[in-house]
Amino acid sequence: MEFGALLHPMTAEIGNFALILAFVLAVVQSTVPMLGVRTNNLRLMRLADVTAIGQLLFVLIAFLALTIAFVRSDFSVELVAQHSHSLKPMLYKISGVWANHEGSMLLWVLILSLYGAMVPLFGGALPIRLKTLAISVQGMIGVGFFGFIIFTSNPFARLAEIPLDGNGLNPLLQDPGLAFHPPFLYLGYVGFSMAFSFSVAALLDGKVDALWARWLRPWVLVSWSFLTIGITMGSIWAYYELGWGGWWFWDPVENVSLLPWLAGTALLHSTLVVERRYALAHWTVLLGILTFSLSLIGTFLVRSGVITSVHAFANDPERGVYILALLLLASGSALTLYALRSSQLRVGNGFEVCSREAGLAINNILLVCATAVVFLGTFYPLLIDITSDDKISVGPPFFDLYVGYIMGALVIFMGVAPMLKWRHDSFNNIRKPLIILIITSFSLACIVAIFGKSILGGIGLMLALWLFVGTWITFGRKVRFGQLTLDENWRMAKALPAGVYGFLAAHLGMSVTVVGITCMGVWADEKILMMQLGDTTELGGYTIELRDVRNGTGPNYSAETATFTLSKAAKPIGQMRSERRFYPVRVTQTTEAGIHVRPTRNLYVAIGEGEPARGWAVRIYFHPFVNWIWAGALLMALGGFIALGDRRLRLPKPREDEVTI
Fold first, then answer.
1. Does the residue 26 lie in any domain?
2. Do 129 and 146 fall within a single domain?
3. What's the count of helices (H) and strands (E) in the chain, helices before strands?
4. Dihedral angle sign, alpha carbons of residues 343, 345, 349, 353
5. Rounded to whole angstroms, how far apart are CA atoms 576 and 588?
6. Which DSSP letter does residue 172 get?
7. How far is C-alpha 42 from the chain's CA centre?
8. 269 contacts 224 by C-beta, under 8 angstroms
9. Are residues 515 and 532 in the same domain?
10. Cβ neighbours of residue 627 under 8 Å, at least 6 residues apart?
11. Of 42, 127, 195, 453, which residue is most buried, by most CB within 10 angstroms?
C-alpha cells in the first residue's frame, strides 16, 4: 500500500521519463549499428539488438503508466481529464488510453517498438548485415515518432489546476468493438514499417534475392492480416453504432485505411513471386516503401485538421506539418535511395505471358490501379479545397463504379492465375477448368438475372462463384483430385504446406465477401417513416410493430428505448430494441440500432426523435447477406495467419559472416 501510494502521484513522471529514454535508445539504434555495418564492426552491429529490445521495454513502461493514470482517473494528467470520467465503465477507461491523439500515438510507437524488437528475438537466422540495417531503419522511424510525441503531443502533461472530474470519452467511441479496433488497425499500419525497413535495408546492402523475400513475407502476412481485421472491426462498428445502416461510406478516413491494405495485398503477392522465381524484385522493393508510406499518409490525414470526422484524432495544423515533414523525409529519402540504388540490384528472372508470374503481375497492376483510384478520389477534393475557393465532392458513386470495375477484373484473374504453372504454361493446360468456370458462372448469372431481376446482381454473384469454383479447382489439382483414389487425395492434402491452406481460406473469403457486397448493393431495401405505438409496417417479408417506448438510465447516460416486435406470416419471431442515448458529460446524443441477425439477412431498426402525440421517426433496413461481407474478410485474415505456419517460410541456418570484432 505504501509503495502504491508513493507510485500513484509519480506515475506520469515515470511514464514521461521512460518515453524520453526510449527516444534516446531510438537515436542510438538508428546511428551506431549503421556505423557498425559501415566499418564492419560486429560489436556495434549487435548493439542494434540490445537497443531495439530496450526501446520496447521503456515504451511498455510508458504505456502502462498512462493506462494506470486512466484507470485511477488521475485528472491531474491533462489527457485523462480531457478524455475520461470517473463514472465511465472500466473497459472505456482502458480503451480511452488510445481513443485520443496523444494516447493513440503512444500505442503507435509501442507497436513500432514491438515489431522492431521481434527482429532480434525471432530473426537469429538473418544475415547480420541485413538484420542490423533493418533494425537501424526501424530506429530512424522511431526517432521521428518519439520526437513527435515528446515535443508536440506529450500524453503525460500535467494540469496546474486539477478538475473534480473529467470530460469523458466521445460517446461514439464507447463501444466494445471500437475499443479493440485501433490496436488491430495499428498492428497492420505499423507492421508495414517492417516491409519499409527491410526494403530500405536491401537497397543499402545492395542485395535482393529469394531469401530476402522469404524473410520479408512473414512480416507482410502478419501486417496484412491484422489490418484486415482492423478494417473489418471498424466497418462492423460503423454499421451498428452510427445508426445509418451502412457498412462502408467511402469516408476519407475509411479510404486511407484501405490504401495500405490494397498496396499491402499487392506486396504480399509480389513477395511470393520473388521467393519462388526471383521475378518482380525491383517492384517488390518499391511496393515495400510505398505501402508504409500510405500508412503514414493516413496518419497525416487524421491528425492534421485537413478533415473533420468521428475517426479523426486531432485538428492541429502544426502537428499535421510535423507529420507531413516526417512523411516527406521518410518516403522521399527511401524513394531517392531506390532511384539511386535499384539499378545495382540483380535483375530478376523473366517469365512467359502464360505463367503464374504473369497472373500475379496482372494482380499487382490491378491492385495498384485500385489504390490510385481511391487515392485520387480521396485527395483530389482536398487539394482543390486547399488551393482554390472551389469545392468538389467525390462520393460513393465514383468509387463504386471505378473500384468496382477494377476489383471485378481482379476477381477474374484470382480465379485463373493460381491454376497456371510457374515460368511457362500453355492454354491447353487450363482449358478444361476454364470451360467449367465459364459454364457454371454464366449459368448462375443468367438464373440470377432472370429470377432476381438484376443483371448487376447476376454479374456480382457470377464473379463470386467464378472465384469460389476456381479456388477449389486449383486446390483439387494440387491433390490430383479425380486422378487418384480418395485416400491418396487425403494423404496429399495432409502433406501440402500451410501456405496452400492460407491461399484457400483467403480466396474463399474473398468470394464470400463478394456475395455480401453484391447482395447489399442490389437487393437491400429500406423504409423511413413516422410510427406511433401499435403501428406496423412491412419490409423484406417481415412485419415490424412499434410496441413500446420508455425512458431509462445507463452507467453514464440516459436513454429512450423503443421496443419493436418482429413477425413473419403472422408468426412472432422476436423483438428488437433501439435506443437514443444522451451523455450529459459530453452533451451528446447517439443512436443504438436494433438488429435481428440471421445468416442470410439482417433486419435493422433505428429510432429517431419523436413524442407519443405525433410518433417517432423510424428507419428500417433489410440487408441481405450483409454478414457475409465481414465473415469473408475475417476468413481472409485467417488465411494470412494460416500461411504463417508454412514450413517454406522457416529461415535457413545462420551463416558465418566475415566481420571484424
1. yes
2. yes
3. 20, 9
4. negative
5. 23
6. G
7. 38
8. no
9. no
10. 516, 597, 599, 602
11. 195
- Which amino acid would we find at residue 348? G
Dump pLDDT digits (tens) for 553-607.
887 788 999 999 999 988 999 899 999 988 887 778 888 889 999 999 999 999 9
Q: Is residue 258 part of a domain?
A: no
For residue 570, count other CB atoms closer than 10 A to its CB.
6
- Strand order across the 536-539 sheet: 536-539, 542-553, 558-568, 571-583, 588-592
- Residue 376 inside a domain? The answer is no
- CA-based nearest residue to 231, from 291, 181, 299: 181
Cell 538484420 sits at which residue?
131
> H-helix or E-strand containing 80?
helix 78-83
Select from 512, 511, 565 the least CA-distant residue to 542: 565
Q: Order across the sheet with 525-531: list the strands.
A: 525-531, 615-624, 601-611, 594-598
Distances (CA, A) of 460 to 247, 262, 319, 409: 18, 20, 43, 11
pTM here?
Answer: 0.92
- Do 496 and 534 lie in one domain? The reply is no
Structurally, how many domains does the chain consist of? 3
| Domain membership flag for residue 491 | yes
9 pLDDT higher than 80: no
Distance, in Å, from the CA atom of 560 to the CA atom of 608, rounded to the nearest integer, reads 10
Element (H, E) at 60: helix 42-71
- 118 and 146 in a single domain? The answer is yes
Structural domain for 506, as ranges: 428-523+628-639
Separation of alpha carbons 404 and 426, rounded Å = 30
Contact 357, 273 (CB under 8 A): yes
Query: In the chain, what is the straight-line distance between the N-terminal and C-terminal CA atoms, in Å?
Result: 50
Does residue 616 contact residue 551 with C-beta atoms inside 8 Å? no
Residue 181 has pLDDT above 60, yes or no: yes
